[in-house]
Amino acid sequence: MTEEQMKQEIAELVKKGPRPIPPEYRFDAFDNGETVCGKKKGKLPPMGWNSWNAFGTNNNEALTREMADALVRLGLDKLGYRYVVLDDGCYENSRVDGRLAANAERFPSGFPAMASYIHERGLKFGMYNDVGSNLCSGAYVGTCGHEDVDAKSYAEWDIDFLKVDNCYYLWDNATFSDGKNARYVYAPAIRSVRIAGEGFSQEFSAADGALLGERAAIRNGCVTDLGTFDGTGPAASPVGDRSGEFALEVTVPSAGTYTMSLEYATAKEEGQGSWLQVAVGFGPDAVVFDGFVPETPGSTVFRRTDIAVPLAAGRNTVRLMNHRRQENTLCSYATLLSEINKAMPGHDIFLSLCEWGKTQPQNWGYKVGDSWRILNDITFRVGRDGAPGYGAWKDDYTPSVTSQYNKAVIMDGFAGLDRGWNDPDMLMIGMNGLSETQCCTHMTMWCMLNAPLMLGLDLRRVEAGDWIFNIIADRDLIALNQDPLGVQAKRVSSTISHEGESCCIKENADRTYLTDINRVDILVKPLADGSAAVSFINVSEKTMDSGYSVSVAEILDAVGDRLPNRAEWESAKRFFCRDICTGAERTQDMPALLAVSELAPCDNVTLLVKPVQ
Amino acid sequence: METGWSSEDPVRDLTRALTGTMRKTAARLVHEWLLAVRGEVDVPDIAPALSLADIYECHACVEHIGQVYVKGIMEARGGRFGVREVIDVHEAAAIAARAADPAKRLFVPGMAQAPGK
């Protein structure tokens, strides 16, 4: 396909526009707990190896076979690491006869052979694609518009896992997308609204309505920022309303169709777009208008347009909003899942949503996916054959262990067996830049957070019994991640220290977004056998010696309702503790206080605690 | 992806490969050329590059951009790398020349000396 043909194909997709949103995909349906497209619940976090951190776009068939062999050689498959995932860089740069094709130079035997090789070893085969027109590497093989054909290809290759990225997405200003795509995901700026009908007319200014949610604002007499704000970076908490609406209360004398005359200005940027949604009341069927309004000559040039609005007699809440950033993305992933369902009836594919948290997937991801990335990448300095790449403990942006952890640790409310898992990206154990202690705590964090455990290193460098192996093969830590109760750990307290002063946050510690890493977090994770894992994590790069403790009462307050044996905990006179790292055991009498006096930089102490009868 | 750099004139090959590409793609090509043709090791610390405003716009490109920037082969403009800007033949030739000859590389603030020398 020539570049001209590609541009033509994309232009035709853009002309069609984003799909209409069915009620079950609407923002107002996000909280109903219902999945779409028959998405199955009850999957534990996946474990395996992904090519991206290890080899970037330079992965190839021989390397992948060696990694599959290494998983078996090291016995990692027996510990649960079964997925072998080919990330970006494995396809030809464009479709061949309209179909996805293996890069002939790097995967000369093709994907069916790769799948067979992996399956013959008792492992599971994973692949990668994108809901946009292109992959992040630029290859013009994104699934947009090709979901049916691609699903058939994945069926032929008998895949078990699919990671789906969001670059070049046509209906948002995603990475490499047109920046002007913001027009799809933000409403225009609104200066006034007039609602009129037979014998009725009422005018509203920006100040006459209510701003719902977050970030919607009134500036220069106009309502702006009606949309979902971008969650790709670490600036904002994932908790709470991540979008804003403008709501008007209007009381009309009789039921009927009224004319809403909107005074507005369009743009194509974050905060001000050209796509409006109007809803009367709340609920998935409340939307009465969902589309572009005529463009204005400039972002501060206002025009009027009329929209028909059906109102009931009496009081109505009219909402002006735009939730398309979330709804479009959900719809795109659902379209792909739907085609996979047709091509592979009864499949058990793990669908990994990789839109980097941009569209706040913690709200809707569970409906269609099994895990959702929460931020931009954990590292941008991926490895290649002969070089392990770089990982960082801390960073001001997203590429670090603590950037990802800081956000994931307050997202336990979004995860579970009935939903799916927050994904703070792949493990960086084995990359340059992280010490053994940091790698150990990185693994502990990911296990406590029920994160996918995707190894990202060249496994040829690992030998059974070396320090890397001892971390990634730690049975106790893996058991936490794979515990059948499926409950992500909850942060019960955080002690922040600066220049000798300490401040302990206990109330709302599980929802307060902390990015200052000079702190010690205490996490608690209830387990299926009635015990609980308690982790003291020094997030900082210095020794922390203020003394840190949690009581049984505090554990019960935090996770008691998730413990299968709460009554035993409440009545127990003694508690048994085992240190996962040292193996040390002790029994404590009530009142039981679990305490650690000091933690080395980036270190952790993780205890398994159980009431003794 | 370019994998066969001519043993006769790899600089010419590089110039031709860079002409008409976006700077983000050029960064990858130059980085791979340095590894394959010059055997030049990577700089471990690319911190000066990480402050470029648009470096994270390309997931797959950060390391490539970091290496060619801190080595003084491809410069920044106004605090941005210009990931989507297209390179013409003149710029391609200049970049290829700096890649081939460390003595021609640019000074980069934050680097003790021009790497590759």
SS elements, strand count of chain B: 0
The number of domains of chain B is 1
Spatial separation of the terminal alpha carbons of chain B: 27 Å
Mean pLDDT, all residues of chain A:
96
Q: Note the beta-strand portion of chain A.
A: 25-35%
Q: Figure out the total of helices of chain B.
A: 5
Strand order of the largest sheet of chain A: 18-17-16-4-3-2-1-19
| CATH-assigned homologous superfamily of the largest domain in chain A | Aldolase class I
Compute the number of helices of chain A.
14
CATH architecture descriptor of the largest domain in chain A: Alpha-Beta Barrel
What's the mean pLDDT score of chain B?
Answer: 88
Q: What top-tier CATH class of the largest domain in chain A fits best?
A: Alpha Beta
Offer a concise description of the structure.
With 613 residues, chain A is an alpha+beta fold. Chain A has three domains: 3-176 and 327-481, Alpha-Beta Barrel (TIM Barrel), CATH 3.20.20.70; 187-321, Jelly Rolls (Sandwich), CATH 2.60.120; 490-612, Sandwich (Immunoglobulin-like).
